[in-house]
Automatic annotation (TrEMBL):
Source species, domain of life: Bacteria
Protein name: Uncharacterized protein
Transmembrane residue ranges: 7-24, 36-55
Statement: the UniProt record of this protein carries the keyword Transmembrane: yes
Organism whose genome encodes this protein: Acinetobacter brisouii CIP 110357
Keywords for this protein: Membrane, Transmembrane, Transmembrane helix
Length: 246
């Protein structure tokens, strides 16, 4: 059972007062000089206790954390874009940040133009072959991912797709294997051995259906379908039983 400090102190004071009254009823006399000394000691103890309580409360007071604001410049914007869109090329050009992908000829293809403009509200416009985004502040990577995802251009390959994000995550997680992007799927293969063809181990696709992890018709290849982009940890767990054999 919990008893607070106030109750304990009150009980002690009550017992002391009761003993004094009881002694007086039995003929005891009061030595006022001693009472004065005891009173002074009580005041000193009370003052020390009060100072202790004040110091304790001040030390327990939550400290206000100073928010470090990101510098409002293209360098800060570029850092945010590089952290979030590591699967793309991030270029600074003519006072704006470009998010690009590399086509089959090795040339950059602009997907998104990101600008900073304090004089206008946030705006994301869908142009013919790319997106133009303008922010009056430095957006977070998560905000940009949300703003740019799901927006298509006439060329389907020009969208910031979940497939590229999936490819980037799989490549970083399964460094002990070869990871390829082929059409609409990601393939995890064995490392090539001298004189042998690398075996395909896992096929990963992003679909609108529910999550499915199953063996293919050959009984060896794993087929993985996700209605979202899985995390690296989730893929490692889903594929561990099959990949641990290699």
């Amino acid at each position: 059972m919990y008893i607070d400090k106030t109750t304990i102190i009150g009980a002690i004071i009550g017992i002391v007062i009761f003993r004094i009254i009881d002694n007086l009823n039995h003929g005891a006399t009061i030595r006022w000089d001693r009472v004065a000394i005891i009173g002074n000691w009580i005041l000193v103890i009370a003052l020390i206790w009060l100072i202790f309580i004040v110091i304790k409360r001040l030390s327990n007071k939550p400290k206000t954390k100073l928010k470090i604001r990101k510098p409002f410049n293209l360098q800060s914007l570029r850092i945010e874009a590089q952290k979030e869109f590591s699967e793309y090329n991030i270029i600074e050009r003519h006072g704006q940040i470009l998010i690009c992908e590399t086509d089959i000829r090795g040339e950059f293809r602009e997907l998104v133009f990101v600008r900073l403009n304090t004089n206008s509200p946030k705006r994301v416009e869908h142009k013919e072959h790319f997106l133009v985004a303008s922010y009056p502040y430095i957006p977070s990577g998560a905000e940009m991912r949300k703003d740019f995802s799901g927006l298509y251009t006439k060329d389907k390959n020009s969208k910031i797709s979940d497939l590229n994000l999936l490819f980037d995550r799989a490549k970083k997680e399964f460094t002990e294997f070869n990871v390829l992007k082929r059409n609409d799927r990601i393939i995890i293969l064995e490392r090539e051995k001298l004189g042998q063809i690398a075996q395909e181990l896992v096929f990963i696709r992003i679909v609108s259906e529910q999550k499915i992890i199953r063996l293919g018709s050959d009984g060896k290849t794993l087929i993985a379908r996700y209605p979202y982009v899985p995390s690296k940890e989730e893929m490692r767990q889903d594929f561990s039983q099959s990949l641990n054999q290699y």
